[in-house]
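I'd like us to work through together how a protein chain folds, taking it slowly. To get us started, please write out a protein record for me. Go ahead whenever you are ready, and we will take it from there:
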Amino acid sequence: MDIILAHNNADFDAVAALLGAHKLFPHAVPFLSARLNRNVADFVALYQNGLPFRPWEDLNGEAVKNIILVDTQKVPDVRGLPEATPVFIIDHHPKRDQFAPYETFTGETIGSTATLLVEQMRTKDIRLTSLEATLLALGVYEDTGSLSYSVTTPRDLAAASWLLEQGAVLDTVRRFLARPLNAEQTTLLDQLLQQAESRVIEGYAVVVASATIDDYIEQINSVAHRLRDFLEAEALFVVVAHPTGIQLVCRATGDAVDVGQIARQFGGGGHPRAAAAAIENMTLEAVTSQLWQTIEARIQPVSRVADLMSFGAHTLEADQTLEAVIQPLRKIGHEGYPVVENGRVVGLLTRRSADRALEHGLTGARIREVMDSGRVTLSPDDSISTLERRMVESGWGQIPVVDTQERLIGIVTRTDLIKHWAKAHPSREEAVVEIPHERLATVLGEPAAKLIDLVARTMQQAQISGYLVGGVVRDLLLERLNLDIDFVVEGDALTLAESIRSAHGGNVDGFRPFGTAKWKPDTRTAQRLGVDHASLPEHIDFATARNEFYAHPTALPTVYNSSIKLDLGRRDFTINTLAVQLSPVSAYGRVLDFYGGLNDLKEKRIRVLHSLSFIDDPTRILRAIRFKERLGFDLEPRTAELIETAKPMLRRITGGRLREELNLLMRERTPYRGLLELQQRGLLSAIHPDFVLSPQLQQHFEAALNSAGRWPIQVPDVADLHWHLAFSAIPLDRLLEVCERLMFGRGRTQSLMDAAGLVQQPGALIEEHARPSHITARLEGHTELALLTAWILADTPLTQQRIDSFISMWRTVRPHTNGSTLQKMGLPPGPRYRQILERLRAAWLDGEITDEAGEQHLLETLVAGASHDLA
C-alpha cells in the first residue's frame, strides 16, 4: 500500500499536511505520528471520527510500496520498512543538500506545508468539509504565528482566505493555538525563569534558559512562547533535559539571529524565527555551552549609522558665495552639502534651496544666508532609530556625521535609510551573501586566495575598512576565474601598499594624485605564502575610495576622496559595483551591494547606473557590449535606450581611447560576437562611417581559432591578429582613414593595409601557374601578421601552401652574387645591379639554377648582356 507520514512530535502543520496529501492522493493512507503535540492530540481525540487518519500502531512497514512524506525530509523509523522504499517528499523547509536516488523532493521555502497542499487542492477544485478546512487552517496559522512570522508569504494569506471560504472556524483555530499552560508547563516556566541567562551580543539581548525535568512534558514550545513574552529578548533558546534526551526550542523576534540555522547545528531545523531540535548523547551543560558559541558566531551585528553612512563628504564654507560653488555642486550631483564654519557643522545647503535662490537672482548671496541653519548631526555609533528621529525632527534629508570632537567625518542620507530598509526586509528570494576563503580558493586558486587573505590581515591590523572590488567579485559570484584583483580602502591606499611591500616583499608603483598603487609580488612574497611565484597574479591594484565628476561630456573625470559606497557608484554597470568586505574581521566575506548588482547578476542583465553614464564616458557603450557577449547577458531595456541616445557621442572620443577599449574586446575568446553586435547597433559606423565588417566575420574568426595549431608563425598578441582579420574586408581606399581615426601607429597601420591588400588583391597567390618568384614578389615586404591573415583567409589549400613555402623557404633565398661581385666583374654601379640580383634570385626560386655553377653561368650571361647594352 501507499502511505502518508509526517515527523514525530507532530504539530498542526504536520497533521494538516497528512490530511492535505490524502485529499490529493486519496489512495494513500495517512498515519498519525507516534507522538503528537498535546494540542494536536486533543484536537484529534475530539474530531477523529471526521478525519481519515489511522493510528501509528496499525502501520506495517512490510506492506508499504510508496511513502508520501510531509512537513519533513527525514522518514521516521518504521518497523519492517524495506530499504530504498520510494519516498515522495512535500515540505516547506529549506531543501537539504542531497537526496537518495529513491527520494523525490517537491516544495518551496514558505510559511507552512499546509499552504503548499492547499494551493494544489485549489487548482484541482477539491472541496473540503468545515472540519477539514479548520484543521488545514490550524496548520497554516500555527507555523506562521497566526500569519505574523517573517516566514509568512502572500501565498499563506491566500491559502488561509480560501480555507475560510471552505468553512474554517477561526474560533476553533484560536482555541487550540492559544491554550493556557497546564500545571506541569507552569512549573517548567518557573524553573526556566530562574535559570535564564541573558547576554548582549552585537547589540542584541539573547536569552538561554535551561532546566531539568523528571518526566517528559508536552508542548515545551508553548512554554517557550510564554517565556519569550515575559523576557522580551531578541532571541530565546529553551534547553530542557528530560529522561530520554534534551529538547531545544528556539524563538526570535527579529532577523538578527536565524534560529533555524542554529537549530540545524544540533540536528534539528525550522524557520529563522521558530525552530527546534531533539538532542541525544549530550549533557545539559555541553548543549548550553555549545549553544552560546554558535549564537556568538552567527548573530548579525546591530545596524548603526556607521553601517549606512558615507565616509567623507563634500563640504561648503558658510561665507562662500552661491555663485562660486553652484557649478561644481551641479556637476557632483548630490542633493545636500554640509556647511561648516571653523571646522564645525553649522547648516546644510540643499540643491533645492540653492536653485530657488538663483531663481530670485541671489547669485552673490553667502551660503549662510541660503542654507538650512542648525547643528543637526549624528555620531557613527548612533542607532538607526536615532537617525530616523533626527531626520523627522529636522526635516533634513542628509545628516552630517561627526566624531567625538565634533569634526565632520561623513554623511548619511534618506537614500541610505531606504536602502537599509530594503536590506533589512529583503524579498524572499534574497539572502545575505558572503564569500568565504573557501570560495576564493575554489574559484581563484589557493595562491591567489592566500594573497587576498594576506592583504585582508594587513587591513585588519591597520584598522581600516578594506574591500575586494570590481570584476573579480562579479566573477567570483559567477564562479569564473579572474586574477585581475583590485582593492579599495577607506584610508590611504599608498601607505597600505607600502606596508605590505615592507613586510612581504615585492615592488610598489604609486600615483599620489589618484591615491592608487600597484603592488607586484616577488619571490620573497611567494616564500612567505608558501606558494610558487609563477602561480601569483602579476600585480594587484590598491585604490583609495574616491568619487568623481565629469566637467563636460567625454572628459576625463575629476577625482576626490570618498567612501566605498560612492567609490562603487562611479563605476560603469551594476554588476561591477559589488564589493567583498575584508576588514574589519567581523564583516569579512560580506558582499556589499548598494546598486542592485546581485539581482542583475541573477537575472543576467547589464544595467547602467545612471542615465548620463554613457554621456559622461561613451566608451562604456563598447564595454557594455563586451560584457554582454562575454557573460551571455542581456542589455537592460533602459540601458539599451541610453546606448542609442548616446551613440553620436562616440565621434567625440579620441581614437586612442576607442582603440584601447576595442582592444579589450579583441582579446575575448569570441570577439566577433561583440563586433557584430556593435555593427548591428550602428556603433562602429558611429566611430567612422567606413568601419564596416565582413558578413563572413564569424567564419573568419572561427577559421583562425580552428587552425591555431597549424599557424606558420607565432603570434605575440592575438588581439593584433583579430584586428587584422576584422579590417581585412574594409576597402583599401577607405581603410587608411579608419586606421587614422583609431590612431594606429604607422607600423600597425601599414601591417593592416598589407593584410587587407593580400586578402582583397591576392594576385599571384591565386594564379594557377604562378611561379615561386612571382609569389615571393607579391608577399615580399609584408608583416608576418599580414601573411598570417592571408593564410587564414585563403580560399584554397594551394594558397595556404604557397604562403607556407614563402615563410619557411622562399623569403630567405638569396643568390651568392652581391654588388661586390658585380663590381669586380667590371659592371659599373646602377639600376642593372638590382635587376641582375633579382633575376638570379628568381632563377633560384623557380628552379632554373640549383647550384653555384648554374648561378655563375647565368650571371656571366646577364653581365655580358648588360655590358652590351651599355656599349
User: Anything to note?
Assistant: The first helix runs from residue 12 to 24. The first strand starts at residue 2 and ends at 5.
